């Protein structure tokens, strides 16, 4: 396994981000702390100087395992489950732009909050079909770029569908695309899974990316999740990908990144 | 320790309630399952036939350890931290009505969601002062009836202040009333506390009521909270009060109540 931490390419309201100011400095810090990669949180790739982002990543000898896409929902309201067809079309276009951007790094594109919430008064089965339709369009487009998508179950307070790994697997099966995997996030799992470990075992054929955050969404080691056992379980299923810290910048960005690096080094993830 | 489970006196939107239909039948079930008490969730005591509620509780030989009051926030928007003075005054009046109702049972009055959320654009320090002012008014009124209030920290998604037991203790100290205690809820603690056990130990002089729900808010035993260790910790601080199940009615009301009774009996709480 390799380790990464989330860095936003621009300032954002989204809270669970170690670094969201001064991209170049943040990336340098991530490299200095010994991370193998930086997961990038991007609102709209069209707002970025892509060549510049590529250059900064290369200069610091980092990989980009995944692109986070939730800001387009949080800040612009784009979503796969919106009753308005135009909004859904814009959400698909945005993810397609993220796919083109991701192809520069061999990064996965995360489908997290961009799926939205099923609004009151909206038929649940219909909203699920809209979501599946959007996922089919995006995975189809992603195949042309040899890019994978990864679906992230989130806790009940952040969305009212796809909360558990098993919910995620059901959706992945319904979409039926070979380039759609599953993202296991320990913070969400602490709230939603009956057993964090058993659910990882059961999802072994689907997990393509992992988020590490402790029970309180601080750096691993700051709450009560047993990361030693999580790592053992990931090794048991022969997970070879990244564990990426999607955490609150507390007590401050530098400290939480340092704490993450320290905890992961102690746990001997490789 | 004694065991209870939450029963709503009327139908409600609030989801974390085992029973919310047909009060008399629900109370009978609670008694049949061997619970010592029923915690009552009440939107407005003035809508109740109080003598009838007292009669049903007595006939079933149950106690009422606490009154839940959050529906007045969830369904009517009354709160202690609302910028509108009239709303705050209505919230205090509602809690005072709950205090009079509670005095029939020697029950504590829970201050949970009724504290509200600090709205965007509202000064945090000011909203905290409003809340403290309301708490002083209510604890003062409660003294006349020899009733205690108990302040419930809830997780970050349900309110943006008083999330940890320690936050609760700080507020209790600032209010400075001898009849204001602390409510420890395991579902919220699983999200907010660094260690569920250490935080109980640290709050030992303040805890006057305990909610049991598992990590997924199902009945104790359905998630990954170690209730054996929670019970041991509560025994360590010599907690003599109630553990009360505030849980989702899943898979259905009867099953979740039965599961709760079974788990608590196995854990030998007394």
Protein described:
2 copies of one chain form a homodimer. Helix content of chain A is 42%, strand content 14%. Chain A is an alpha/beta fold. In chain A, strands 1-2-3-4-5-6-7-8 form an 8-stranded parallel barrel, surrounded by 6 helices. The longest helix of chain A has 21 residues, at 124-144. The A-B interface holds A 157-158, 190-196, 215-216, 222-224 and B 157-158, 190-196, 215-216, 222-224.
List the helices and strands and how they pair.
2 copies of one chain form a homodimer.
Chain A (H helix, E strand, L loop, with lengths): L1 E7 L14 H10 L4 E5 L8 H10 L6 E3 L2 H4 L10 H18 L5 E4 L12 H21 L4 E3 L13 H11 L4 E6 H7 L3 H7 L4 E6 L14 H10 L5 E4 L7 H15 L3
Parallel strand pairs in A: 1-2, 1-8, 2-3, 3-4, 4-5, 5-6, 6-7, 7-8
Helix pairs in contact in A: 4-5, 8-9
